[in-house]
């Protein structure tokens, strides 16, 4: 299932790479695409992923869910 989340605090290509790496590290997340201009990340879930898991990974990378 495709899913899109808003991410606050990204400002450059390094931010995109950091968020991509954080999301790819979550079991059940594949095909991650981060759009800097929109402040969004889109990915496929191969198994359910909680918002808390997403929030923790994004915050650990230095950003916020929006």
How would you sum up this structure in a few lines?
With about 70 residues, this protein is of the alpha+beta class.
Helix and strand topology:
Blueprint: E1 2-8, H1 13-24, E2 29-35, E3 40-45, H2 51-60, E4 64-65
Antiparallel strand pairs: 1-3, 1-4, 2-3
| Order of SSEs | EHEEHE
Which CATH-level-2 architecture? Answer: 2-Layer Sandwich
Summing up helix and strand content along with how strands pair, one would put the structural category as alpha+beta
At CATH level 3, the topology is Alpha-Beta Plaits
* Strands, count: 4
Instruction: Provide the helix percentage.
Output: 25-40%
The main β sheet shows up as:
4 strands, antiparallel
Mean pLDDT: 97
The end-to-end distance, rounded to whole angstroms, is: 20 Å
Gyration radius, rounded: 10 Å
How many domains, in number, for the residues?
Answer: 1
Runs with pLDDT <50, length 5+? none
Q: Taking strands numbered 1, 2, ... along the chain, how are they ordered across the largest sheet?
A: 2-3-1-4
Specify the CATH class. Answer: Alpha Beta
How many separate helices?
2
Portion in strands: 25-35%
The general outline is: globular
Account of the protein in words:
This protein is α+β, with helices and mostly antiparallel strands and 66 residues long. The protein has one domain (2-65): Alpha-Beta Plaits (2-Layer Sandwich), CATH 3.30.70.100. Helix content is 33%, strand content 33%. It has helices at residues 13-24, 51-60; strands spanning 2-8, 29-35, 40-45, 64-65. Strands 2-3-1-4 form a four-stranded antiparallel beta sheet. A hairpin with a 4-residue loop joins strand 2 (29-35) and strand 3 (40-45). It starts with a strand and ends with a strand. The mean pLDDT is 97.
